[in-house]
Amino acid sequence: MPTEELKNTSDQILMGTYTRQPISIVRGRGMKVYDLEGREYTDFVAGVAVNVLGHGHPDLVAAIQRQAAQLIHASNLYYTEPQVKLAQMLVDHSFAERVFFCNSGAEANEAAIKLARRYSHGKYGPGRHEIVTMKNSFHGRTMATLTATGQDKVQKGYEPLLPGFSYVEFNHFAKLEQAIGDKTAAVMIEPIQGEGGVHVADREYLKAVRELCTRRDMLLIFDEVQTGMGRTGTLFAYEQFGVEPDIMTLAKGLGGGLPIGACLAKDSVAQSMPPGSHGSTFGGNPLACAAALAVFRVLLEGRVLDHARQMGDYLAKGLLECKDRHHAVRAVRGLGLLQGMEVEIDAKSVVSECLRRGMLINATSERVLRFIPPLIVTERDIDRLIEVLSHVFNRHTMESPGH
Ligand SMILES: *Cc1c(COP(=O)(O)O)cnc(C)c1O
After folding, report:
1. Considering the entire predicted model, what is its pTM?
2. Over the stretch 242-295, which tens digit does the pLDDT of each residue have?
3. Is the CB of 106 under 6 A from ligand 1?
4. Which of 51, 115, 207, 271 sits between 20 and 30 A of 352, alpha carbons compared?
5. Nearest to 82 by CA among 250, 289, 321, 267
6. Of 37 and 401, which is predicted with more confidence?
7. For the structural domain made of 3-57+303-399, what CATH number should be given?
8. Distance from the CA of 138 to the center of ligand 1, in angstroms?
9. pLDDT value of position 400
10. CA–CA distance, 365 with 363 (Å, rounded to integer)
11. Residue among 252, 260, 338 to mutate when testing ligand 1 (max atoms within 8 A of CB)
């Protein structure tokens, strides 16, 4: 279907929940994707931090093909090996001892919220059920997770929201201390706020939060849906803060493009969800788990994490140099290959300009650009990105000499 027709039909029959860029992507290879007209783009979006191995990675493709031919789905009424192997991988490489599989980030957080409530209910009885989350956070689009999300624009029009949530300023320990009470069951945080504009938690802050949670037996939930699976240069972001959560959620990069989410926890916490207390028909399905296993193996055996850390530094350096050269850039923030750039000009127009120059980037708001490439990104790709950005900022300065 020609792009224009695809666009028109799509705008007529799909619910209007997204504003899409005006291209139709038909295939991908490594760091590149190609549109219907055969134009090539360098991908600094990676399907919103999902395609950690880039496009068409041979190990991932082979694993999916093999598993699809063998068994695609069986449900959780039976044992399936890929699910157990993946859970073993996650447990072997994290603080966690138990895993629950689902299909998305929102569902992983939904499981975390349910687990926290159930744990507290079982141990302290009803009434101690509140979860404190951060302003400007993002935890998903289901009713529980949009309630957990501290952003009006995500919640607006969906009231009544779920009871039992409160919101505090991110990175502000005194505000958190004030907000907790006898009814608080858990604190939920993204170590780096992704959708909220790439804000990195302070190490000391997370340590203080951990101590507070331990002291009061409140569960610490890390939403690593975006930061997990090597995005920040370590398998999980929490490793870099020297702080372990009680519950952690994953999705985005986990399946390398196949939909899968996971809620991980300490055994003592996970015990509060006995048979029948939670579930998901597709959760941990053999196809998605085989894909995630392949991703995991490449990350660990292919030294991809070291590479991601180096490329993260290189990207941050390039963006900071860009900031020094261009007045339009106000700040650069991030960790590893999750980088944000705050600009004084309309971020959406920068995204469009980059698209026209064959570069896919994303804006989290009117003023923040986000760079979340596949972890296989090279120095050459990053050089090209900085070149394109410089070009766009130069052009903007010429058009508005008042700047
Ligand atoms: C994307 C994201 C979610 C939601 O994930 P979905 O798969 O879209 O449901 C939750 N938390 C964080 C931190 C995210 O970045």
Report:
1. 0.97
2. 999 999 999 999 999 999 999 999 999 999 999 999 999 999 999 999 999 999
3. yes
4. 51
5. 289
6. 37
7. 3.90.1150.10
8. 7
9. 66
10. 5
11. 252
